[in-house]
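User: Could you go from structure to sequence for me? I need the amino acid at each position, not a summary. Structure tokens:
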């Protein structure tokens, strides 16, 4: 049987990421040439309108198609996995706290960096507005029902009146809430019926992963088309903007990886960061080269038990759950990407909206699959929710290779750091218990 969690195998000799990079270079290069030499020609508008835009749209639609089943199944399974392990109830609770708190930290770091460095600003207002007008038709359509709602209403809207309608409207947070409740009930009620429901959900999840693999195969063509459209319209400036975005993501990831993890390890894990990085190295390198937390899981487990000395029951639970649910790097990346594109397209976001984005990024990282590009469907959906043109995804896809590798290292590093901290706290609790008995 093939492993549904394995990253898609390259079809041709070149890896998918290399083909994506080629798509980026070809699309951006052709777009720049078109912009310089025939910028105002009518046929160029026609080419963009009838050829390159629809190709990009097709790719985005395929991504959107997968969001609801993927997020629903990933969240239900995430909750069930925590609750299922009765003997691990306490570890489950600690893991949940670790995931929520450390991921929130990661998103905050990302959001502070993007607000301070403003990588998306710099394009003239007119260009931003015309891009917005051209690209946001569908975004506005999907999000129109959210027009003019107050902060309180936004909070109330987290609970859907009708989950099917919420899903149809693309209201991701309401769907996530529904999935969490479903997962909790499926955990509390252990019957034959609920167990077979859970295995059906597992099937849906596996199918979604397979489909993402297929859709991502189309990414090189979509990248070329989307990049052509944008550079033919905007010229060289847009590429400079993109370099600033890449720099911001890498800086924020580095702060989380080299400052937050070492602090947590030292204070709560009783382990020197040097020893951690040395022991964790094989898993970090695997994460870097595969861009997939799920594909790295076997190495993560081995290294966490053998090199970092975490007890097997803790390592198994935290790392297995963490491979899909604990994604610090992904959450940070989602936050920066959404705010960068908002800046790029000139969409103003209020503080309440930014807080909503923070919550969405935490839940979105739990709902993202641990495969290369697993967070892209979730980002596309968050963009739509906040009326930011989802076409912006095309901009970042071409540089996603490097960012995916880096954020996956942070994702896997977070699973191992969490295991060390939780393993230590379990050992301390155990020692206290034996002392009391003696
Ligand atoms: N590639 C990431 C992982 O597997 C997920 C993502 O952010 O796309 O951890």
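Assistant: Here is the amino acid at each position, in order:
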């Amino acid at each position: 049987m093939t492993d549904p969690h394995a990253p898609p195998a390259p079809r041709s000799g070149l890896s998918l990421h290399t083909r994506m990079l080629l798509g980026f270079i070809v699309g951006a290069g052709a777009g720049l040439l078109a912009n310089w030499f025939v910028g105002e020609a009518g046929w160029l508008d026609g080419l963009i309108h009838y050829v390159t835009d629809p190709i990009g749209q097709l790719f985005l639609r395929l991504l959107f198609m997968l969001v609801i089943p993927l997020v629903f199944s990933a969240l239900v399974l995430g909750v069930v996995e925590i609750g299922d392990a009765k003997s691990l109830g306490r570890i489950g609770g600690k893991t949940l706290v670790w995931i929520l708190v450390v991921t929130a930290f990661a998103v905050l770091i990302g959001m502070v960096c993007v607000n301070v460095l403003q990588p998306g600003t710099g394009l003239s207002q007119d260009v931003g507005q015309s891009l917005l007008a051209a690209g946001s038709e569908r975004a506005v359509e999907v999000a129109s029902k959210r027009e003019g709602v107050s902060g309180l209403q936004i909070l109330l809207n987290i609970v859907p009146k009708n989950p099917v309608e919420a899903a149809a409207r693309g209201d991701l947070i309401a769907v996530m809430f529904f999935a969490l409740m479903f997962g909790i009930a499926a955990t509390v009620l252990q019957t034959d019926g609920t167990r077979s429901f859970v295995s059906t959900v597992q099937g849906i999840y596996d199918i979604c992963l397979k489909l993402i693999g297929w859709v991502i195969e189309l990414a090189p063509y979509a990248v070329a088309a989307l990049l052509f459209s944008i550079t033919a319209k905007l010229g060289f400036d847009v590429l400079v903007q993109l370099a600033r975005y890449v720099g911001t993501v890498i800086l924020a990831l580095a702060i989380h990886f080299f400052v937050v993890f070492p602090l947590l390890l030292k204070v709560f894990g009783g382990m020197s960061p040097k020893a951690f990085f040395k022991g964790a190295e094989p898993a970090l390198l695997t994460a870097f080269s595969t861009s997939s937390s799920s594909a790295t899981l076997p190495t993560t487990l081995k290294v966490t038990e053998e090199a970092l000395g975490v007890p097997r029951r803790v390592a198994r639970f935290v790392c297995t759950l963490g491979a899909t649910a604990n994604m610090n790097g992904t959450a940070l990346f989602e936050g920066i990407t959404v705010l960068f594109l908002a800046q790029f397209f000139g969409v103003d976001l209020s503080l309440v909206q930014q807080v909503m984005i923070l919550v969405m990024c935490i839940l979105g990282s739990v709902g993202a699959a641990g495969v290369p590009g697993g967070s892209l469907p979730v980002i596309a959906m968050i963009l739509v929710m906040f009326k930011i043109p989802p076409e912006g995804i095309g901009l970042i896809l071409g540089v996603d290779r490097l960012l995916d590798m880096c954020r996956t290292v942070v994702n896997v590093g977070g699973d191992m750091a969490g295991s060390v901290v939780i393993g230590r706290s379990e050992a301390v609790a155990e020692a206290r218990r034996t002392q009391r008995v003696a």
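One structural detail worth keeping in mind: DSSP finds 19 helices and no strands in the chain.
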